[in-house]
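Sanity check

After download, print the first record. It should look like this:
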Amino acid sequence: MTDARAPLITPVLVAGCVIMLLSFAVRASFGVFQIPIAGEFGWLRAEFSLAIAIQNLFWGIGQPLFGAIGEKIGDRKAIILGGLLYALGLVMSSVSITPEAHQFWNMAIGFGIAGTSFGVILAVVGRAASDENRPMALAIATAAGSAGQVVGAPFAEWLLTMMPWQSVFLVFAAIVLASLVALPFMRVPVKATRMELEESLGTVLKRAFRDPSYGLIFLGFFSCGYQLAFITAHFPALVTELCGPIAPGGLLHSMGVTTTSALGALSIGVIGLANIAGTLAAGWAGKRFTKKYLLAGIYTGRTILAAGFFILPITPASVLVFSVGMGALWLATVPLTSGLVAHIFGLQYM
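Expected structure tokens:
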């Protein structure tokens, strides 16, 4: 069967989507816990914010580490390690009563996210896909992460109405472990050229850091992660405290969104929902247009949207408009960036 006739939807893609969806459902919910945890212990908001910042930092540090681990012991074992660290961090956080303990265990959570998200999952999905289908396969897997974001924060908000945040963390740990049942389907032969197989990871990294194109890709993706982590961590609390009131009898009120706290959780879900369309559109466009220009347009659009949101009064309407606009651009960078890396440096170390 030729690449042109290879199916887009494969067991590897479906399994990767399941793991990405559940991993990101949990990750996207942490901003919802800002106020409950700070309120219970009487902490400054900065204490739990620092824990989330550490989580994101170790997520970033863990991406290349888990990529290297996957090369040494296999991708599936790397994902299992990531899932175990993720669940361990959540369980230990549920019994932590000091800011320092939360900050420490969020290092494990960050490493766990690294092992169950983009770095490892997209590499497997990308290698399993044909050249023709790769941009869309990467977009679909990324969109699955966005689907997790759609349900994660509202699900956490709903659970918090029935149980304490500690119990929600335990539920999330069980969800992360349950996602690993999809691993038997993530088996894929390495599709790499002879030269790629003969190059060591160190050689590829040296070649990458000498390439100005990689430097620009690195800086762009760094700013992308900074923006999105900031919004995920702080946007629900910002909406809760600074957004204007929800009008009785309005559309949101009739949907059961009667408080700005509920609107904050909903906004993360709206971002994820809009990003499903945005990411799939980016995958489609990546097959037809120059990826670097598409990325430049996405980053410019984000900047304009964020500036407009903070300049204008924060109202329920502006929150929803911002959520839809930012969501459409949210992870649209991922299939384009992954595709560029695979094109420039090969599939073996994408």
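If your output differs, re-run the checksum step. Summary of this record's structure: The chain has one domain: 3-345.
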